[in-house]
Amino acid sequence: MEPTPADPCREREIGELTLTGRLTQASNATFVAADDTGLTVVYKPVLGERELWDFPTGTLARREVAAHRVSALGGFDVVPWTTMVDGPLGEGSAQVWIEVDDLADEGCDIVPADRVPDGWFPIMLGEDGNGTAVAVVHADDERLRRIAVFDALINNADRKAGHVLPAGGRLYGCDHGVSFHTDPKLRTLLWGWAGEPLNRTEQAAVLAVVDGVDQLASLIADDEVAALVARAERLLAEGLPEPDDLGPSVPWPLW
Fold first, then answer.
1. Going along the chain, which residue ranges are E strands?
2. pTM, entire model
3. Distance, CA of 215 to CA of 242 (rounded, Å)
4. Where in the chain are the domains?
5. SS3 of residue 216 by DSSP
6. Is the pLDDT assigned to residue 5 strictly greater than 60?
7. How many angstroms separate the CA atoms of 38 and 15, rounded?
């Protein structure tokens, strides 16, 4: 793969794409592709999206682009540059490839329930294959908190640990196709700050997204834009949300 660009979140031109591989574990048809400059991207054609009962068919690619737009508007810098392209398999989203740092971790782990590290939040308890009590935990890390605020704003239904990508000392996010629903859908491993008020930097980020929300009009439906503004208002007034009993609060699988 080509190395991750110095700033993978910045806007750039993506030329004609050639498929170079496929991510076989993805739920939808997902390909690795390169343009004529050698830039590597993750390409998700609309034709490869499987139908979901709760999201309109053929909308996931634009939700991926909308997630980047929100990330950029708020200065979250979580989502690599993502845009719509006319690729080898038709219209779809293209996102700059992140070369993950294999020596870093995403700040999430499974540990013995009685050995939660200092500075880590226990999110859920369970048992491993031997019946030993274990805890799913994540670090009290400012980079993860930024992702948690971003996810609450876009109503991300799928923040697995594997959707957090460590690279160059930063943490990026990927796979935001099941976001922006009008109903509460937040499913995440990053619940450690639930109920905490936003700090000033986070408040400014959320307000910046609201100020630029018209930029989402071509990507998600009007009622979804309105729902995002309503979530922003709740975040500013009430802080980060807490899990509720309306549905699962964590994604599956967890990684």
1. 18-22, 31-34, 40-45, 82-87, 90-96, 108-112, 120-127, 133-139, 164-167, 170-173
2. 0.94
3. 29
4. 18-101+141-238
5. helix
6. no
7. 9
